[in-house]
Amino acid sequence: KLFFTDYGNAAKVERCDMDGMNRTWIVDSKIEQPTALALDLINKYVYWVDIYLDSVEVVDYQGRKRQTIIKGRQIRHLCGLVVFENYLYTINSNDLSVLRINRYNGTDVQSLARLDNAKEIRVYQKRTQTAVRSHACEVDPYGMLGGCSHICLLSSNYKARTCRCRTGFILGSDGRSCK
């Protein structure tokens, strides 16, 4: 799945398959300007920062079990968000500090460091990397990803795929080749 935020005409948190199909709103009320987004891949939760409401909230992948983690001036100007173990990590764009927030109750907010210039944060740790299994976009015997001549996108699960073409090309009737 692909998760993303939008605060154009109607603010929302959405998800879709990797090929763009099955687009679903998972949060569309009591939300103004969702920016940073982070996933708990193990427990299937979506966290986001709303910079207008000065809040960090969470829902499950279906948009249920919504909770406010923390709200108020203390977390104004947040950008970037990542989940690791019991904490959320984010950047305060006002003073460029890295903040750590307890993701279960919003307590224990700590400034860990100051950076010269940062707008995003990531955690790279072996336990956060999901195991790769065989999937529909693997290279076929002819060297094409998923048998697609241009672009292979995973679909509703790792066994399904959709072929797409680069700009200026159209997908052939076989659903794989681009002309």
TrEMBL record:
LDL-receptor class B repeats lie at residues 1-43, 44-87. It comes from the Eukaryota. Pfam families: FXa_inhibition, Ldl_recept_b. GO terms for cellular component: plasma membrane. GO terms for biological process: canonical Wnt signaling pathway. Coiled coil: none annotated. GO terms for molecular function: Wnt receptor activity; Wnt-protein binding. PANTHER family: EGF-LIKE DOMAIN-CONTAINING PROTEIN (PTHR46513:SF33), VITELLOGENIN RECEPTOR-LIKE PROTEIN-RELATED-RELATED (PTHR46513). This is LRP1B protein. The gene is Lrp1b_1.
